[in-house]
Amino acid sequence: MSEPADTSELGDTHRQPAAPVDRDRLTRLLGGPDLAWLIDRVRRRMARDEPLTGPVSLSAPTAAQRAAAERLLGRAPGAGRALSVRLDAVDAVLRRSGISPDGLAAAVTALTGHVARLADVREREERAWRDAYAPLDELIRTGRPELADWAEQIVSDGLVRRIARTPQAAKRLLGDTAKALRRLPAEPAVSLPVFSNVTFGDAHALDDGTPLATLVLSGVRTLTGFPDGGGAEWRREAWACAGLLKDALSSTVLTLGLRGSTALDWSTDEGEPAVLTLRQLTRRPPRTASPVVRVCENPAVLATAADTLGAACPPLVCLQGQPSAAALTLLRHLHAHGSTLRYHGDFDWGGLRIASALLRRVPWHPWRYTAADYRAAVAATPLASPLTGTPTTAAWDPGLPAALTGLGVRIEEEAVLDDLLADLGQ
User: Fold this and answer.
1) In a domain? residue 129
2) Which helix (H) or strand (E) holds 334?
């Protein structure tokens, strides 16, 4: 059964009952593949509420397409490179012949089905998207008002639309996101896969790169105040701030002279280094914090301090290169409980980058790690290696990069061990 024709382009002001369409003749006249392009152009105009008047053109038509247009109009449509057909003429043919008394719009609807208005489609889609955001509204209304700005941001910047693509997928995704954020931060800390399995029935639902992990981690940063960043260690630390441990045993930090737990007290009394895991630090962090904690980059410094000073060594933490989630969790805890952190690293571009990465995440003061200290170390190290790599900045001492560039040599921590040990031995 044909649907009522849209005759708005003809100026009708009242909807009239649809006149019958001769389907067999219409199919023979307009339904072949050689006029599919013409039907498609008409449907586009109908969808946009544009009048079905004037010409439509097809570039580089085939001979069969030209012949079909000629049969339709009862004359040759022209011999140019493009094929042009006036919609007014097609409408007139359909009406005069009785094939479609209500004209072209009714004929196309009969051939291809109802043509949805783009304005209606867009309105339905917008309604669907508004409904998709309902889980965020419910989350904020029922216990997480602090996430209101975050929710507005991920909607307004298009993040949800980009990763979900459809309103239906978005509603499911945001429902799961809300379910996770209601349970965070986790107390006590728990394995990320275990939390994921308990919450969603899938231990891998919050694996890196999934849309759900992207949104939940974004919300976690708002809940915890965790700074922006990127990379595997950053994600590990961000999850840890919400009590979710990702590879909680593989992320470690070296310490010496640190107290605050039975194991740490024993290690310090014995003068032995201790290895703390992220799991230990999130579940049972040190109960005490020394007024000053020194931080170094390389394990050789901590090992030599253990050999030389033993139980007399004051608190020392070693990053072992780039700061791990365990190292950052420990240093944040110590800083929050009153410790002043004093940092030393290699005098080279890589060392400055590690120091800067640490400074962005936890405050520290330089420990023999300024331009003046670098110049003194160069003067005392005649066989220093040439400086290589790409220059960077040093927020704690803006003159340090210029000093490195000017003198052009690198000084590793091992080259100034005597000075560092002297400080630790005081």
Assistant:
1) yes
2) helix 325-336
